[in-house]
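Problem: given the chain below (200 residues), write out its structure.
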Amino acid sequence: MNVEYTGRQFDITPAIRKQIQSGLEKIQKILGNFDTHVILSAEKHRHIAEITVTVRNHAPIVGLGEAGDMSAAIGSALDRIDRQAVKYKTKWKSKKQKARKKFDQQFPNDKEVSLAVAVGGSLETAIPVTVHSFPKVVKFTETHIVRSSDSVAYKPLTLEEAVKEAEFRDREVFVFRDLEGKVKVLHRKRDGKMELIEAP
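Solution.
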């Protein structure tokens, strides 16, 4: 949040800055990040505080407060900005919900959208084809890694011993060293056959 201060016939004290800063922090919780320009001016018997908040892609929100002392004028200006910020946020949320409802009506129930097309040179030879699009929500699962010492042989084994050990431990992947000290991996493929992978 960037705050720019301008004092017209008024000295901006640290206490005044602190009051403005704390008020703007409350508004920041509603609007998020924004830029602010504060103009504080004093005339004969009145103090005027004009606070302009500029939110990204939106018209500026202006709060104007007038009182006998500057602290009350700032409080009044911040209250006005607070009310306008709540209105802006509610309007923004309702627009977002309307857009989501419209999207959900076009693509209901997170299902894939499919399109039937006929492919071929003529109507007699045409083949019906269904074209699928991606689902509107892509679900990702986090990778969960667990260290397993059960899939590793600590002593050198022959190939036959390694196969028996992998079968006994009921492992899809089994790492071992052969009698010459080379690292090898046994991998069970989907068809149930064991595949031997030799590390270089």
